[in-house]
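Write out the bound-state structure for magnesium ion.
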Amino acid sequence: MSDPAERNLTPEAYAAQAQRERVLGQRAATVWLTGLSGAGKTTIARALEQALLHEGRACTVLDGDNLRAGLNADLGFSAAERAENLRRVSHVASLMNDAGLIVIAAFIAPLRAAREAARAVVGAERFVEVYLSAPVEACRERDPKGLYARADAGELPEFTGVSAPYEAPEAAELVLDTSVLGLGECVARLLRVLEARVAIPE
Ligand SMILES: Nc1ncnc2c1ncn2[C@@H]1O[C@H](COP(=O)(O)OP(=O)(O)OP(=O)(O)O)[C@@H](O)[C@H]1O
Ligand SMILES: [Mg+2]
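---
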């Protein structure tokens, strides 16, 4: 994207994130859940959201399927469209972090470069990458939406783990194998990591 100044744009400054964080009593963060379809991103996002809300934390979820139904309804699943999907999503997460919210982002985000781009947009100090490492066999067995069956039947081209690649994170802040750990344990571990990030020191 070209320089804003070259396009006669003047991005303006508004209240600092820190001022909003004082109002909310928390520091902002983006928890990025990555993993194969069926790894548990939506299930964990929903449970983590409830756990945070019960603790009085201001948070929200960005889920791939929801974003693709609206803001990103014009995008498909080619490599370029997946990159654009995540570019937009990471800017939305960044804006929500600027507003002081904890963002739970649930996206397959199969390519390392795209996740690194998201980390750069959100800001490394706010980005918490969480790899839901359930192996493809476990995800295929769960197949909660019947997508693996359809991909195997050739109905879904470029389906991650079947006909499109998934590059596992090499340095995620947290790895949760949801084929071994129960939902409660996954959420408890996430809360421990998050609390250290979002608590404002006395
Ligand atoms: N520890 C766990 N964490 C999360 N989900 C689990 C766990 N154990 C079992 N499951 C089950 O695995 C399935 C995960 O499905 P879910 O829709 O959350 O996956 P997803 O990663 O959001 O997939 P998609 O990319 O297709 O949206 C659910 O049926 C859930 O009940
Ligand atoms: Mg999901």
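---
The chain has a mean pLDDT of 95.
The longest strand covers residues 29-34.
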